[in-house]
Write a structure and sequence with these properties.
This protein has 150 residues and is an all-alpha fold. Helices cover 87% and strands 0% of the residues. α1 runs antiparallel to α2.
Amino acid sequence: EQLEQQLQEARASSQASGDARVAELQSQLDASRARSQQLDEQLREQQEEWGATFRKDKERIAELDQALSQSGTALGDAELRVAQQQEQVVKLKEALTQSRTALSEAEQRATRLQARVAELESQPQEPESSSATVVVAQLHGSGHQLRQSQ
């Protein structure tokens, strides 16, 4: 009888400690589920935030890509204009060189003609010769010899 009573007490004690252990494990499980739900919610919020950031970044990248493309086009246009202007500068330099050469030649010719005029003016004039006709011909650069009437 005593053994039976001890056995029943042991069973009751075992049942009580098992129930307490089950209650403790159930409490831990409930806390773990609550924490898991909280972490799931935080993860969902983080994913939504990252998704919004990703979409904004993607839009910004598209805008920057378009701006880069436009910059490339503008740069190409500018390079073309620069090349055209450089060609124009070369042509203008050539024209300037030609103008300077022509001016130098004209100045030399004018100097020669002034010397010739001075020479002719210093010579005694003969009534038969037409010095003025010779000077005019030289001034016009005709290069033709004029006949002097005698």
